[in-house]
Amino acid sequence: MSDSLGAPDERMGELRDGLERTRQRIASACAAAGRDPADVTLVVVTKTWPADDVRRLAALGVRDVGENRDQEARAKAAETADLGLTWHFVGQLQTNKAASVAGYADLVHSVDRVRLVDALDRGAERAGRSLGCLVEVSLDPQGSPGRGGVPPAQAGDVAAAIAASEHLELRGVMGVAPLGGDAGPAFSRLAGILADLRRDYPGLDVMSAGMSEDLEQAVAAGATHLRVGSAVLGTRPPLG
Ligand SMILES: *Cc1c(COP(=O)(O)O)cnc(C)c1O
């Protein structure tokens, strides 16, 4: 790609292969489910990888990127602001980081409590932006140590708080399959929760589910957004 990244660019080849394999998996899963691949957005989760990889991905046609830590995301979004990408925030979010995230994110997938809703709304107002939000719903068996998200019974409360916020737009739901559990039934439950919420909010258009390991099950359950990291970028370097 650009001269600044040097040539030959082996990393570009790795990313092209990872992307090609992932797009192929999505196409096969869509064919099996009778779905149009155009209705499925691949969000490439670039956490721990450098901004140059974001640039390479953009050159390969990626428009949607995801991050899970504010500090890293904010820096990468600034470094690649010229690319006009859509930024997805997918990680657990502390209330005191909400205003920062509202400054660059386009869609926050991980809204899991009402207090966070208020902080995001104030941040979006201050940034002069409208911010898309998903309710992150826990798909873990009740009482087991969770991977984040609001219990299904409280999803409506978080949704209502988002919908009532002037600078936030409620778009749908997000879920992470239980560790070691079967992803298919978990994603079907998430689809059911989205269907329930649509009775009150008919415009909801996003179901964010599926990662590198379980994107096929997510497509089968109706996911509109897949959050894929390692299948595209490789095994993440261990956190320091
Ligand atoms: C890291 C991450 C992903 C991507 O995970 P992979 O297994 O690398 O595809 C998806 N969703 C969330 C919330 C993440 O933190």
Description:
The chain has 240 residues and is of the alpha/beta class. The protein has one domain (10-232): Alpha-Beta Barrel (TIM Barrel), CATH 3.20.20.10. 42% of the residues lie in helices and 16% in strands. It is built from nine helices and eight strands. It has helices spanning 10-33, 51-59, 70-79, 98-104, 114-127, 155-163, 183-200, 215-221, 230-233; strands spanning 41-45, 64-67, 86-89, 107-111, 131-136, 168-174, 206-208, 225-228. Helix 1 (10-33) packs parallel to helix 8 (215-221) and helix 3 (70-79) runs parallel beside helix 4. The radius of gyration is 17 Å and the shape is globular. Pyridoxal-5'-phosphate binds at residues 45, 47, 68, 90-91, 176, 211-213, 227-231.
What does this entry show, briefly?
The chain has 240 residues and is of the alpha/beta class. It has 9 helices and 8 strands.
Features:
TIM Barrel; alpha/beta; binds pyridoxal-5'-phosphate; 42% helix
CATH topology: TIM Barrel
The rounded distance between the terminal residues' Cα atoms is 29 Å
- pLDDT averaged over residues: 94
Give me the strand/helix succession. HEHEHEHEHEHEHEHEH
Query: Share of helix among residues?
Result: 40-55%
Overall 3D shape: globular
Counting DSSP H or I runs of 4 or more residues, the number of helices is 9
Return the domain count.
Answer: 1
**pLDDT under 50 segments (min length 5)?**
none
| CATH class call | Alpha Beta
Strand order of the largest sheet: 7-6-5-4-3-2-1-8
How is the biggest beta sheet arranged?
8 strands, parallel
Radius of gyration based on Cα positions: 17 Å
Reported CATH architecture: Alpha-Beta Barrel
What ligands are attached or bound here? pyridoxal-5'-phosphate
Total beta-strand segments: 8
Proportion of residues in extended strands? 15-25%
Q: CATH H-level name... which superfamily?
A: Alanine racemase
Computed structural class = alpha/beta
